[in-house]
Design a protein that fits this description.
Helix content is about 30%, strand content about 35%. The chain is built from three helices and seven strands. α1 crosses α2 and α2 runs antiparallel to α3. The protein is globular and about 35 Å long.
Length: about 100
């Protein structure tokens, strides 16, 4: 399972470039078994671990609760930049993920 997380991270990682955030409003589904994180910094760190193939680092972020694995939840996206999106989960908490992992 953890190996899948790193592979998924490699597929979605677009770089750590600083990008301008813009307000948006749409519903989407965060694909099953894809990663989302509690902060943009954590998402960027996870992406760096995935890009480096550092499975232990990616595992630690998930086990520490900084990032989580999606069960295919429906979300409300409210901000995005070139590569990432901020969304509200069904519980009303805000998280970050890669735009490529959202299905409209």
């Amino acid at each position: 399972m953890i190996r899948n997380i790193v592979v998924v991270g490699l597929l979605g990682f677009s770089g750590l470039a600083i990008a301008q955030w813009g307000d948006v409003e749409y519903n989407a589904t965060l694909k099953k078994e894809y990663i989302y994180c509690g902060s943009q910094k954590s998402l960027d760190e996870f992406g760096a671990f995935a890009q480096d193939g550092d499975e232990d680092g990616a595992n630690k972020m998930v086990s520490d609760g900084k990032c989580r694995i999606s069960s295919g939840m429906k979300v409300r996206v409210f901000q995005e930049n070139d590569y990432a999106a901020s969304f509200l989960s069904p519980s009303g908490k805000a998280f970050y993920t890669y735009k490529k992992w959202l299905k409209r």
